[in-house]
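ARCHIVE CARD
Drawer: 12
Card no.: 0347
Subject: one protein chain, sequence and derived structure
Cross-reference: see card 0346
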Amino acid sequence: MWLPPSQPKPPPPLSCYCDTWDNSTHENLDDQASTMTPELRKEASELQLHKRGIRINVGLHVIEADEEVQLRSAQEVEKRLIGLWAVSYGMQLATDHQQIIQYLDDHGLLNCLSEQERQFLYENKDASPSLRFRRHAFDFLAWCAGLVPKIDLGHKACDPSLALACFPAEITSTSAAPTLSDKIKLRRKDSIMDWSDLLYRLHWAVRHAVLNHKPSPGNIDGEMVREWHQAVNWMCCYEEENDWDKVSTETTAGG
């Protein structure tokens, strides 16, 4: 694209599918100003999708500018990670729902659960579709917290081992409380906003494929996209909704 000499050159396209955050520093760089405007971020996301042969809806609006968004605090992220862990990875360790409930109660952590998560555990029901894939939301928020080094929408699975090391390896009456507090270092706002924009547009493509009875675009896991979209919208306080169960993942055009 040609630009007049008097105009600054725009920043390079996002590399959202390959995280470029330097995890050797674990610093919170949120106070650094981003040069990515909502319009440039939209263009960069669309370029990423186009390069992978994924359908683009140019009618989707731009998302908020970085300065308009207030990210969740480290304390809020910690509580949400505990709730997500309880109904995903934690359930893989427990013999039954009551064991997870008792563990959370012993450490005063029952308030970390959303209402849907609480009902799932207390009513001892099979996981609903909205809960079955909560591990993906855990992985994404753990990345936001600096506890997962890289996230990738491809077939290479995330490595949540650093985050899971903050939780007990087994659930017993003597299992220690999670040790997240001093390990969470939130990532830069612009990095999270890059994903917010990309996931918004990618989720539209996933839903469009489902409605037209076609496979998920780019062989991407549609459930993972939905969970990541909800997680990033919660992280960015989308529509000022604090109830995890009610966080929107709308992908409508206009507005």
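Annotation on reverse: Residues 1-31 have pLDDT under 50 and may be disordered. The chain has ten helices and no strands.
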